[in-house]
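Quick one: structure for this chain?
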Amino acid sequence: MAEQTTTELKQLRAKGVREMREILDIADAEGRPLSGEERQKYDRIDTDVDAYTETIDRREKQARSESMLSSNAGEARVSRQATTQAEMLDSDEYRTAFDKYVRYGAQALVGDEARALQVGTNSEGGYLTETTLDRKLVETLDEMNIMRQLCTVIKTASDRNISVESDAATASWMNEEAAFTEDDNAFTQVSLSAYKLGSIMKVSDELLLDSVFDLTGYLARNFARRIANAEEAAFVDGDGSSKPEGVCTGATASVTAASATVLTSDELIDLYHSCGRQYRNRASWIMNDSTIKEIRKLQDGNNQYIWQPGMVAGEPDHLFGKPVYASGDMPATATGNVAVVFGDFSYYTIADRGPRVLIRLNELYAANGQCAFRIHQRCDAATVLAAALHKITMA
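Got it. Here's what it folds into:
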């Protein structure tokens, strides 16, 4: 039997959601809880829906990665003269020298190899991440980190002040020949600095000496996974202490749930309309997967389910017509937690400071037959306009 397409899986998921709703509707209409048989059927379908969702998400992430790899491969085929540092870092000479540095250390480089790698030397005695490695890092970061997909990402060389219009001026009606009313826009500034995020990875001597082993890809995947997890935790719920301030802190507190553990459809509607119409056009929802599971069961005042499962490949599920994204770093529905953030996430800015830097640690784990690699990056992030992002806080 042929493998089901993503669209077919989305249709099966939507069918499962409808069947779950029918089970709930029958029990509600008869004013009773679910029977044991109904509960078993509901849970079985719910498990299938979760499995469909997991497969759909995995395929769509893979499709995005392949698309980016294809784009990068096309760029690599374009012939150009390596005259700037960025071009040198993308050259075959640098790539070859970088691979030799990773496997054998800087002492193994001679002549042209040492000169090629010198282009990427940083002030701490390490090396910029070779272009292929950096691309794989970025691709995996974008794939795993919901916030990098939705938010504004900029590169900076120093602290950055972002001017934000905090009070928009208005026009006024006037009589003929009447004096114009002066009304200037007011601006505030959001300052983005740089926090350091780093990790050390140990690699066995056997892997280092195995020329067939894709060492660059291995480093990229593992470092990217670690960085992506740490980044999203900070971008979503960071407290601003030695790390960026998360969107849960920066968003406007618009709705407080009546319950400490349960959300209602009316509260979600209130959150939707607390966000100005000008920001709703590009708005999205972010919440924990456990919160999504509960919201899938909610109905509005007309007994219509408010959850809308995505039906097209690449399209997320929707709530009131706006896409929903799950993040494991969003707090669950518990006392005092920020359970849902809604709004235009382009008003949350991530500032990457300079390049990522990779350093080979030759001696630290040599007694164990291992070599270590240390990578670090600097970045900051903040909500630059709180009016564009709103949140529900549990009681």
